[in-house]
Amino acid sequence: MYNTNIINDGCDGKAALTTDMLHQLLSEHYPTLKNERWEVDVDTIRASPILHPLLKRKLPVGIEKFTCVLFTQQTAAFGEPLIVYFLLDEKSESIYAMDLLLEQQDTH
Questions:
Q1: Origin, by domain of life (predicted)?
Q2: How many structural domains does the chain have?
């Protein structure tokens, strides 16, 4: 099991399944990140023409709504914070996709 003070689940338990999945992913594939602090953000999103093409490709055809769970690294040990996201069905029961991103800052 994971140490609950490492992950700030301010989502009334809605992200419980994905916090377990995040911890398992980190333990198995990225053990140096398993003790990082993570902020959790959960939102239900309606699929629309303005949805980013990257996300649209990861969803099954015909999906109207989906849940996105974002985990943002709070300690940023490697410079820019790492972001892990899960795309789930509207009821957060089935996983459509999971990916790791590095937050990119635009410099002008």
A1: Bacteria
A2: 1
What are 33-47's pLDDT values in tens digits?
778 888 889 899 998
DSSP state letter for 10: -
* Residue 13 is assigned to a structural domain of this protein: no
Residue 48 covered by a domain: yes
Domain of residue 33: give its range: 19-97
Question: Is residue 42 situated within a structural domain?
Answer: yes
Q: Is 3 exposed, middle or buried (0-12, 13-18, 19+ CB in 10 A)?
A: exposed
Q: Flag residues of the chain having pLDDT under 50.
A: 1-14, 108
Q: Which DSSP symbol is given to 33?
A: G
Is residue 27 included in any domain, yes or no? yes
Q: Whole-angstrom Cα distance, residue 13 to residue 9? A: 7
Rounded to whole angstroms, the Cα distance separating 79 from 102 reads 10
Measured CA to CA, the distance from residue 73 to residue 5 in angstroms comes to 13
- 20, two tokens: 């377990």
